[in-house]
Amino acid sequence: MNDRPHGAWMVTPVGAGPVTRRVVLGVVFVLTLLVLIAPLALIFSSALSQGFEVFFRNLTEPGTQHAILLTVVTALIAVPVNILFGLAAAWCVTKFTFPGRTLLIALIELPYSISPIVAGVAYLFVYGTTGLFGPIIEILGIKIMFALPAIVLASMFVTAPFVARELIPLMQVQGTDEEEAAATLGASGFATFIKVTLPNVRWAVLYGAILCNARVMGEFGAVSVVSGNVRGQTTTLPLQIELLYQDYNVAGAFAAATVLTAVALFTILIKVVLERFSPEHHGHAPGH
User: Fold this and answer.
1) Cα separation of 249 and 244, whole Å?
2) Which of 13, 174, 212, 231 is the most exposed place for a label (fewest CB within 10 A)?
3) What is the mean pLDDT of residues 85-107?
């Protein structure tokens, strides 16, 4: 006689057998070890292979110091701009109904699907001296390509969706009831945004900003095209790591890489903390 409760087979997860479970867990742990943990461990072990004195000397090397400063300056400009863009874009597509709304959402997500190299080349053809706006830029005497403005623009393009994609699903779920109630009570649009909308999405904004910052500091492809990669002038930290490696300064390259790795690990830590303590964010964004 079969003792299994009626219908129990229907709730048994696929692959829940002991053998399948062990095989799947084993594959996941082995891949995690080989693909994620081993490279990270190698970065720190290689950076410290010649001792802490050499490690700190590599970090304080003028080229690396300039690259760190340029990367931080880029993040300080690009991240706040993308926060404002994300808030404005999310507000538009969730609070208003207008023709082209779906197209606007698709355009916001475009940087996710386009190669950063392609984005860099596109900016080169738009803002370069022979590009679309080249003559106007030359008349105005503004230097965009192979300088900080190009690095910031390329970083902003690559990271443009990060804040918006965190806000749009959350604001769609929240609806417009609270804003309409505030408007009924006589609140202005700005006051409604500051006192009603922004508090409801603050954790999502912070979460998106942290991810945006990590991506800005680690961006390589688009920045390598538009910066010119001039040593000591337009090399961000990822570009400096490549230059050091090409110079056979492996310890210096790995020392610089520890900075970006530390940023990534800190980002993961903040992400976990936010997901644990922010009920608004928890479960609103599939895929995260």
Assistant:
1) 5
2) 13
3) 90
Per-residue pLDDT at 194: 86
SS3 13: coil
Q: What is the pLDDT of residue 256?
A: 93
Residue ranges of alpha helices (H) inside the chain are 18-31, 38-47, 52-59, 62-95, 101-108, 110-113, 116-127, 134-140, 148-159, 161-174, 177-184, 189-192, 198-218, 221-227, 237-246, 250-277
The CA distance from 165 to 151, in Å, is: 23
Check: CB of residue 238 under 8 Å from CB of residue 223. yes
Q: Is the dihedral of CA 224, 230, 232, 233 positive or negative?
A: negative
- Ramachandran assignment for 274, one of left (phi > 0), alpha (psi -120 to 50 degrees), beta (any other): alpha
- Residue 66 vs residue 132, higher pLDDT: 66
Other Cβ atoms within 10 Å of 12 Cβ, number: 10
What's the rounded Cα separation, in Å, for the pair 276 and 272?
Answer: 6
Which residues, 6 or more positions from 145, have their beta carbon under 8 angstroms from its beta carbon?
123, 124, 127, 128, 129, 226, 228
Instruction: Find tokens 């106007």 and name the residue.
Output: 136
Which value, to the nearest 10 degrees, does the dihedral of the CA atoms of residues 150, 153, 154, 158 take?
170
Residues 6+ apart with CB under 8 A from 94: 167, 168, 171, 172, 176
Side chain identity at 90, as an amino acid letter?
A: A
pLDDT in tens, 222-267: 999 999 888 889 999 999 999 999 999 988 999 999 999 998 888 8
pTM of whole model > 0.90?
A: no
pLDDT at 286: 43
- Which run of H or E residues covers position 236? none
* 206 contacts 274 by C-beta, under 8 angstroms: yes
